[in-house]
Design brief:
The protein is of the alpha/beta class. The chain folds into two domains: 171 residues, 3-Layer(aba) Sandwich (Aldehyde Dehydrogenase, Chain A, domain 1), CATH 3.40.605; 139 residues, 3-Layer(aba) Sandwich (Aldehyde Dehydrogenase, Chain A, domain 2), CATH 3.40.309. It is 39% helix and 16% strand. It contains twelve helices and twelve strands. The strands form two sheets. It has a seven-stranded mixed sheet, sandwiched between helices. Strands 3-2-1-4-5 form a five-stranded parallel sheet, with helices on both faces. α1 runs antiparallel to α3, α1 packs across α6 and α2 packs across α3.
Length: 339
Amino acid sequence: MLTLENRLSAFIQLGDYLRTLPEEERRYLARRAGQHNNFFDFPNVSAALDGIASMLQKDQLEAWVAQYDIPQTNPSPKKVGVVMAGNIPAVGFHDALCILITGHVLQAKPSSDDPFLLPHLLGKLVEIEPQFQEQIQLVQMLKESDAIIATGSDNTARYFEYYFAKRPNIIRKNRTSVAVLTGEETQEELAALGDDILQYYGLGCRNVAKAYVPQDYDFTPFFEAIQSKQEVANHHKYQNNYDYNKSIYLVNGVPHLDNGFLMVTQSQQLVSPISVLFYEPYTTKEDLAQKLEAVQEKLQCVVSKEAHWPQSFAFGQAQCPSVKDYADGVDTMEFLLKL
């Protein structure tokens, strides 16, 4: 019988495996993942694996688990079905971690955009701790699941809510992330903001899609600071998005700024297309607070200078969630421990 100590130890060893992954193996994993999703290139897959490795550090995991009353062995494990997203590599890993650590059975339905990477990581976990074989199922249908965790667009969320209504569930909808700028940012901070915007080509819900800026904000220092990120334009799908969005703006006469790989345009909307950053000016701190309050339910995270804005991350940290950072602010562990 798998004890909590066994389960923890296996995930710590999985973290060790990822931290010592030879480049050749990383490149193999990226190639395999990229066969199903062109955006899953070597830098993206590598960044995702590093993120998981950092989540699986012994001290972090032990401190996280200590916050909850988790029994050594789960007396009545439930089958928890997860509809995995596929926007960034292995994005469903945290849900899998929570389910397995709490001693439940994971029924994972991998995304067609990411059918390789997560099963590979779960396979490694079983190699490390063979008893996990009983707790991990890769499925196409979630009819037998006792509870559901599903991530999708606002449209698919409506379908999920209807379809899974009779079972305990966490249904996640579209979310995005924003930056708060004051005009006092250093070049280093603006460059780090460039990572928040462009890492994973802007496809994650933790990617910054919009910036709130002071009235008459000058974007010149920002464009200078992110010039080093121009290699995103070498990716054909990113470049196609850039060309398409640029032509739309030019044809429709939409005012915008452009540095050759990222466009910036003013918009009330929150979710910008790939290769575009929206911005919205604010007048006072109170005005900014009201604007953010109005969209709170749609935000995954906020980044600001030295994380000065309440409950925000520092620039460059949007895509570096710790094991304690839950999607949509819903405590997955709490949900699982009540099943």
